Amino acid sequence: MRLMEAVRLVRLADPHGPSFRMWLACGFEPLHLSTFLTAELVKRLPGRRVSLAHGVFDDLAGNVSNLSDDRYEAGVVVMEWVDLDPRLGVRRLGGWGHETAGTLLHSVQTQLSRLFEVLSAASGRFPIAVSLPTLDPAPVFFASSGRASAVQLELTGALLDFAADAAALSDVRILDESALSISPATARRDIMADLSTGFPYSLPHASDLGSALASLIVPPAPKKGIITDLDDTLWRGLLGEEGVDAVSWSIEQHSHIHALYQQTLNAIAESGGLVAVASKNDPALVEEVFRRSDLVLRHQHVFPVEVNWDEKSASVQRILDAWNIAADDVVFVDDSAMELAEVAAAFPGILCLQFEPLNPAGAYATLLDLRSRFSRDRIHSEDRLRVSSIRSAQQPRAPGKLHEEFLAQLDAEIEFSSDRATFDGRPLELINKTNQFNLNGRRLSAGEIAAALADPASFFLVASYEDRYGALGRIAVILGWMDGSRARINTWVMSCRAFSRRIEYQCLEEVFRQTGAESVEPDFEETPRNAPFREFLESLVDRPGESLTRERFDRHKPPLYIKVME
Amino acid sequence: MSGSLEERLATCVATVFPELSEGEVQRASSASVANWDSLAMVTLVALVEEEFGIRMGFDDYEYASSYSLLLNYLRSRGANG
After folding, report:
1. Mind listing the pLDDT tens digit for each residue in A290-333?
2. The pTM is what?
3. Does A381 reside within a domain?
4. Distance (Å, rounded) from C-alpha A422 to C-alpha A133?
């Protein structure tokens, strides 16, 4: 991003939108880094009034301690070597030589301990992104060209120890330097600006760093599912032509890149991603390959398996229906450019990636891309239940009276929790990634939720569900506050895996029961994808968002068969 | 950015001081614009450097105190539209 664009973007922040306040802690003049960082956040948080505050020059630890202020929704810490010892920067003269080098380790370790102390005290309130030094230290160390000095390596070791400890703190996110594209380090420093204004970065590096830090604070939503082709993608070879034993994924047969791909799919599935197959093939032959003991991909991770001679887009549609998720949450991988184009035309939102079996470097880059797109900070128990619950949801169901009988024999149980201790990452994740059964599409930060829950008039429910087909785990979250006898709900989300069981009605029943409200007022707002929520409200009131009385709810709610566990 | 030297410089100044009208930009200086402080000056210098592909030494910052001084400075550096 150019500085001109960044300055303009900063001005585009909605002055009337809900605020997003962030604290930038650094030891230098933040100048253009502040501009780029704000601009990147404005891009990622449309409709929010992004503001960024920072502290005084040359006091990183003091600035980090300001992160304990509850007014902020996020924090960024940008470290440079000069913050750990001024002699490692260029604005002070402390001597460059053996004598200086010998005294550096102790002062750097002392400063790192202090930084960890203040960072530790500030952590747990909201996301804090930390960037380790991106500039080389001043040349204090004398070593022959190309050789790292022992002191320099000890300093790096101390820094990495600090980073490992900091990464374990709640909601502290350490920037992976490989996310920065500006290299070498000499292109990152602007010595002229550092000496004249105290801002040490070149504009391209400031832009790069601002973008990477903003991605740590507001990470892109992970993809939810991957649909893969088989021939020359999951394995090398054409199954119909070459036979079950001839398709390969091994070092010996020079097709190991396919084994790595299968391993990637396992990793995606084990972190809660959905994996399906869409292939033009003979189903019986595919079954045989899936029974091969050397297959790296675990069969139980894959559902559905669409093997037929239909157009790929038809298979993809059936998979999306089974998963009950939108195309733009999904990645489609195929070796054929034509198949990719056909699917892309049918589903403009889907991300199509070409697997290049004869170009291992390109294929490996695809694997890295997939890992990044499906990466999650935390894996919840619900993530591991996802495939089994989708399989169970595909059990044939009959309409009308038979559907009532089906629901009645589910042995469904629901548990509601209002214990603030249960409001951990999973409810936050539900609020911030659910699209379809979502009251208004608003995303909330951990800090905003903590502030809402601190209000004594607030209430919240987290619902966990299971039935004879298995547990779904925590699948719904409701947040609201009491306004006299009215329960106003401003956040209500439910996982799409929980549809068609009337869990939403049971949740509303529980809101009435727990709050004793005479009416419920949901703060509904239509989004491009929340039609299921609108349809639910329309089953109870004339217009979505209208107040719903207890009496009207009792008259209009369908029969409920879910046992509420205490 | 395309356009003449004057237009490109005016865009830089207007980006830092969006409250100025088109006619005011060419008369703008630190004496006439209240927000023309040191922070705005550093931002303006960075925008000019980015736009014209030049570096301004600290001694040249004094030229970033008005549109006309900057225009003359850029002409003296051989920058063109």
Report:
1. 999 999 999 989 999 999 988 899 999 999 998 888 899 999 99
2. 0.71
3. no
4. 36
